[in-house]
Amino acid sequence: MKLLFIIPSLGSGGAERVASTLINEWAIKKDIVIEVIVFNEGVDFYSLHPSVKIHRLGYIGGQSIFRKIISLFRLLFKLRF
């Protein structure tokens, strides 16, 4: 079985904690291939099992609305491919 998690970051939030706990438990106990898509670059607060493949998309929001729109289109393009 394959699982794909899509999460904005692996920072120090509650959703990130729950996701990392589930990912680590499933990676250890089950025969599951797990991949994680992370929108933002940055330091991970929670570590994941070494067998988990992490894809970082490098989303950068920015201050101006133009920069946010361009970054959003880049993010959608990277998710598509």
Question: Can you walk through the features of this model?
Answer:
With 81 residues, this protein is of the alpha/beta class. It starts with a strand and ends with a helix. The mean pLDDT is 84. It has a three-stranded parallel beta sheet with strand order 1-2-3, with helices on one face. The chain has helices at 14-29, 65-80, and strands at 2-7, 33-38, 53-56.
Task: Characterize this entry briefly.
The protein has 81 residues and is an alpha/beta fold. Helix content is 40%, strand content 20%. Strands 1-2-3 form a 3-stranded parallel sheet, with helices on one face.
Major beta sheet, strand line-up: 1-2-3
Mean pLDDT: 84
Radius of gyration: 14 Å
Query: Distance between the terminal alpha carbons, to the nearest Å?
Result: 21 Å
How many strands appear in the DSSP assignment?
Answer: 3
Spell out the key features of this protein.
81 residues, alpha/beta, 3-stranded parallel beta sheet
